[in-house]
Amino acid sequence: MKVWLLLGLLLVHEALEDVTGQHPPKNKRPKEPGENRIKPTNKKVKPKTPRTKDRDSADSLPKAQSIMTQMMDKGRFQKPAATLSLTAGQTLELRCKGNKIVWSYPAYLDTFKDSRLSVKQNERYGQLTLVNSTAADTGEFSCWGQLCNGYICRKDETRMGSTYIFFTEKGELFVPSPSYFDVVYLNPDRQAVVPCRVTVLSAKVTLHREFPAKEIPANGTDIVYDMKRGFVYLQPHSDHQGVVYCKAEAGGKSQISVKYQLLYAEVPSGPPSTTILASSNKVKSGDDISVLCTVLGEPDIEVEFRWLYPGQKECSEVLGEWELCVAALRSFFSPCGCH
């Protein structure tokens, strides 16, 4: 039996040589213990550093938390969407969690001290209520909490809420304007806005020049349309001057806005000039005194007043000496802290 087995192996060996012309590979020597290890090489291998997840860096920053809710039917509350569409006449009630809530809403409601608007601060939330809403109330409603250290408070960027509301009203595609003709100043160093906003989210809005009569395309480069602002001139120049108006189409109806006179101002805008004047430089205890701060500047610039007077930290050293404190106001505020 062994003879036949050896003979068979010999025949296989010879057959392999005939086919390949090569000798079959010889068996490797038995490996010594430990030879299964990977042999070191001279190739440089960069050490792998653990990948930091993007969310780790994001987690290190405080996340903004929406604190706004809207009251629905039957006493239900839900978080409002970024844009809402309500029918004019509906009552709007918004709430924001927190014991120190500040609200922002369309300036139209503040300008006329509208009695339809009510803002209250409760123990755990702020509440805004608007009754008998109209198309003119269309705009941004927002709220935020405050972080206070004594009497000094700042906006809490992590606790905010916002929604833009379209109040649709029959026959009103545009947010009503207080005048039939408005002026828009074109400054070379800032954007200019033709504020023809609509009350219907799906409305198609176009911009037109009165003379020569033609449509002005919002090409996204020079002019863009923002439903929350109107037509925005990104880089105003003198060629944009003239009288323009907007046209809106929705539901098979169309409407034309008020007209806007675009005036180009070559002088770049600057800070407003301020003056301060006291009714008297010297007063006795018990007398009245008035201090008038006047600001002159462009009509679209927002002005905020801050006052320092005897009794505050900056004037504590001259408490009771009004003449010195008024003089300090003149020099410290340049003048009177209007900015």
UniProtKB/TrEMBL annotation:
Residues 20-63 are annotated as: Disordered. It holds the Pfam family VEGFR-1-like_Ig-like. Residues 40-50 have a biased composition (Basic residues). Its main location: secreted. It is found in: Secreted. Transmembrane segments: none annotated. This is Platelet derived growth factor receptor like. It comes from Rousettus aegyptiacus. The lineage of its organism: Eukaryota, Metazoa, Chordata, Craniata, Vertebrata.
